[in-house]
Write a structure and sequence with these properties.
- The protein is built from two helices and six strands.
- Strands 1, 2, 5 and 6 form a four-stranded mixed beta sheet that branches. Strands 3-4 form a two-stranded antiparallel sheet.
- The protein is flat, with a radius of gyration of 15 Å.
């Protein structure tokens, strides 16, 4: 990994979050979508992000979601920017 970075290759971290209903109700701790402190997705994003973010030069990270009903249409989207800006889906 370090040889890759030292060789001049740039790392760009992009994150996608699953909003599908297949992993259970987010109100229950046994769901992968649980909104409490034990959320498996949040733990995975933090673990990977903490390793890779120092190597991303601009510190701007595109974050997408999939499998949610997105306003204003309310139709299920298979790819949407979490910040609502398809033209610039990056967050700090």
């Amino acid at each position: 990994f370090l040889d890759y970075v030292r060789g001049g290759c740039e790392i760009n971290l992009i994150t996608a979050i699953d909003f599908t209903a297949s992993n259970g109700n987010p109100m229950y701790p046994n769901s992968l979508h649980y909104t409490g402190a034990t959320n498996a997705y949040a733990k995975a994003i933090l673990a990977v992000g903490n390793v890779l973010t120092p190597y991303d030069a601009d510190q701007n990270f595109p974050v997408f979601g999939f499998g949610a009903k997105v306003p204003p249409s309310g139709r299920v989207s298979h790819c949407f920017a979490l910040n609502g800006s398809e033209e610039n889906p990056e967050v700090k």
